[in-house]
Amino acid sequence: MASEDGVRKTDEDAAVSTIVNTAEEAKDFHEGVKASSRGFLSICKSLVAGGVAGGVSRTAVAPLERLKILLQVQNPHNVKYNGTVQGLKYIWRTEGFRGLYKGNGINCARIVPNSAVKFFSYEEASNNEVDAELNPLLRLGAGACAGIIAMSATYPMDMVRGRITVQTDKSQYRGIFHALKTVFTQEGPRALYKGWLPSVIGVVPYVGLNFAVYESLKDWLIKSGPYGLVGDSELSVTTKLACGAAAGTVGQTVAYPLDVIRRRMQMVGWKDAASVVTGDGKTKAPLEYTGMIDAFRKTVRHEGFGALYKGLVPNSVKVVPSIAIAFVTYELVKDILGVEMRISD
């Protein structure tokens, strides 16, 4: 009898142990699912924040963005836009208010996913498993990788956006999808990536320096506490705007010639592309480029070194608030959405 009781007790203990183990496994699984759901939701919120930041910042400076592109690619033998103020007035006079925002719709359609991927890619690239502090070089690398991924994913939209922005009448393209289809059928799929190489090269100093300078300035201000700032305190929106402005100024100045070359390569095959006077001194023929180096060489030869900085003034006026607004909007939207992950983390 005692033996039977012992066996029964052992069976009961085993059953209880099995039930407990099963319950613990179910609990662990449930917590894992909840953690995964929270992580996925955080990623979605981070992407939304990046997209909103890009859309808001670009819309705020859309007139200057369009003028910059027009200055970069206008025919040197038929100058319509001569400076920032004159250029904006000319657009207003000839095309009205809508002309100032021509191409902004497609730009937002491009920049929202671009900015979302860029900000999220940066956070993933800069995520350090041992929580060691990122130095400026690592930040530059993380920012550059994020920029290349985001730019490559949305490049065809940027290419046709440039074409739509440049056309000043109801001519060739009726919208983004019509432009994509027209370029694809008339010039081939490779045409959608014209100017991709200088864009990639330009991403390294531009996006990389944006993130590196912005984060490094924030860290320096928090740790050194100049101008009465208290260490380890949250920086104000005004201070973050100043950091973003400085980051944008450094990045765009270094990378600007590559942006000009990219835009000019995108215009090859376009009926309004810049022309050059041929050997007889009378006729004009559209410029053709065999590659990035050839585009640099022909631009400098026919228009001088200064042509590599055409549109720099409106771009400088544009980039400073654009980058600043993008960074601050990104962090504000993440605060509103309750995302724990931050760039500085």
UniProtKB/TrEMBL annotation:
PROSITE patterns: SOLCAR. The keyword ATP-binding does not apply. The keyword Repeat applies. Keywords: Membrane, Mitochondrion, Mitochondrion inner membrane, Repeat, Transmembrane, Transport. It holds the Pfam family Mito_carr. It comes from the Eukaryota. It is a multi-pass membrane protein. Transmembrane segments: none annotated. It is found in: Mitochondrion inner membrane. SUPFAM superfamilies: Mitochondrial carrier (SSF103506). Solcar repeats lie at residues 41-128, 134-220, 235-336. Belongs to the mitochondrial carrier (TC 2.A.29) family. This is Uncharacterized protein. It comes from Rehmannia glutinosa.
